[in-house]
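This is your field. Pick holes in the following sequence-structure pair:
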Amino acid sequence: MKQRFKIKFFSLLLVFVFLVDLQGGENIFLCLSKNHSTASISGYRDIFKELEITPNLERISGDGILFKNAFCSTANSDLSLKSILTGTLINPKQKKKRDQLQPANIQSILKEKGYNTVFFGNWIGDKKPEGFDYWEILEDASQFYNPKLINPHRSRKIEGHTTDIITDIALAWLKKNGNIPKPVFMVVHFNGLQQPWVPPIRNLELYNDLLLPEPITLMASHDYKAPPSRYQEMQIETNLNVESDLFLGPDVASSEATVADRTKGDGLIRRLNGEQLSAWQLALRPQNEAFARSNVGMDGSISWKYQRYAKNYLRCVRAIDENVGRLYDFLHPNEKGNSWTFIYTASSGNFVGENGWFGGAWIYEPTMRIPLIITGEDYGKNRICESNVQLLDLFPTITGVSNQSNGGINLQSFHKENNSSESRVLYFEHYQFPDKLMVAKHYGIRNGRYKLIHYHQFDEWELFDILKDPNEQNNLYLDSIDPKLVEIIKTKLITKRKKLGLGKLLEPMPEEWRRIYRGPNARKKEQINSP
């Protein structure tokens, strides 16, 4: 009898301990954007630092820690999100072995710990989210107004700007399920910073009275870099479409143009309802008429196009910031009495005029650098971490499960130790070519001083001294004053690839193939599939 009592008591004690752990688990909120340039956040002390574009992110970083040197491993947002959730470097070309298990993901690990897992916003690929208790995702990530959303039970169209709507549905879930006796892991993924940079109407007149500072490399010639930088198609001056990217049609100066004329050929703007379209035109008309009165040709001024592009991009950043602020204020421990770890980051960075470019895809600093802000009881307040960290670090940070093969570290303990990570080797790879931006496939490594890049299809190389040449304009690979240095860093690249299971350096494509993209017609986009 006593033995049965002891067993029953012990079982009840285990249940009690489990429930206490479940109730006391820390809520985790991961908020991320596609293509967020660190230059837009004042804390990173870059070109737009005086403009206060992201007051909420500045406020949030004051409640926690801002990682000054955070990096992604690829500029592909789908692969980047998968890497965050699995803690592994996702290579789309790598064949999966039959007996190879799918990597564990954050949501499944936390689910086993008793978490309620939810996802809102921009999902990846064609499959529905797996491992989440509830989700609601965009049917089409290119819809910035009045999007259609899908959840496990139904689909629905919601009117408004997509950035606001993603926040609305996340807040609605929190308000409805606030009393769930489980800790929560929530992911909110914004699509609002991807091309063609469509701001909410309320932000369309922001920065109209400002002349934005220009990056010092806006007019860069790329003469001292490897050929890929001269064969891309992401130049603000020549590759931005004045109608679909800059919202300036050939008839904008005409007050007699019809609504149909003004939106002709632009499916994004045609998504606006009548009220939205009227407000959109009212906000843009003064800007377009000012352009029409100027002597600047539509295709003739990189400075004008830069101003138009950058202002729209920053207006979209402001919308992200406004909505991150809404979410943070709802979750803030002082307001709600809950324990939250709040993380804001991005799947990649973005060019905002650097090198004369828009978009991303490169291992260069504007794309590889990402914002990373974490607040919570274990991170202190108003702190800055200068050490090199990467998105792959979020997996062990959130789950507590280490993944040594990819070199991920737990930032929760790492930042407390004030570690120096100058010698840490970070890996990056770009997998798509040819594609819209025509950025050559490449991979490379970065530490605290040097960056080595291999454009393997063409067997072209770049080496930059990031401390002496932070804008990456002077390729040292061929003209290095220390040839041994090149070999040392190349050995590090080979070692890193082997550690990641990627093998040795990749071989170049056949000469006939390379001639297509380096010959007289190379700057004309060819629809040729790369083997």
